[in-house]
Amino acid sequence: MSTVSAERVSPVITSQKKLSTLTLTGPNGILCRYFYFAMSLVFAGIVVDGFKRTVDHNLFHPAILRPMILWFHGAAFSGWVIFFILQSSLVRIRKVSWHRSIGWFGAGLASVMVPLGVTTAIIMARFDSVQLHQNQSDSYAFLSVPFYDMIVFGTLIGLAIYWRTKPEFHRRLVFIATCGLMDAAVARFDYVFDHNLFFLCVDLLIGLGVARDLLVERRVHKVYLFALPVLIVGQSFAIHMWRHNPSWWQAITRGIMG
After folding, report:
1. Residue 242 vs residues 54, 61, 68, 142, 207: alpha-carbon distances, Å
2. Distance CA 184, CA 145 (A)
3. What is the reported pTM?
4. Which of 22, 140, 239, 247 is found 20 to 30 A from 5 (Cα to Cα)?
């Protein structure tokens, strides 16, 4: 009788232990194991939802044909989002060696994205002013935003490569760098763009990483503590140059545009 009872109770106890370990927070919780993979899907959703508003009449069926470089730009930056999903998935299924090998592809892609992003911004600023007859001063002043994005992205990915053997630094740097790319997608919402809220949306995404640290590790990692204040200052400066277009920035953009 006692043997039968033990056999019946044992599976119940085992299942209860398994359920008790499936928590939201903690070292083995859902946030710890799935946060970066879940955020990779969030990034994909933001990109699709943002660009679906403009990609058809600006790229696929434009009234005026866009420069070819815009296609390469879209492919490279979309490829980065796919790369982030893949890398997050490989970590989740514990294929760390694959993650490291494919990571060098990401390093190469990032090294292309920075000059490609800068070049695309310059060509499109000229296209907007000449072909679309938009205000030249506004088009040129807006260069502060993509220039800032590429400086930040390149710096963060460079640091992530340098600290590739320190996962706690590496993953957060790549995460913040990818968050920074989302401003182009959220800026496709007119209200967000008109009220200069696209950088705030980026900071809110980064804030999810901060919240994850607080819930899982009960502290904020030093990467966020150092990066966020610098990013906010840089974002404010980029917005100021765009919206106020000081004379020194006008001289720089005129020199760049020729």
Report:
1. 22, 29, 26, 5, 25
2. 10
3. 0.89
4. 22
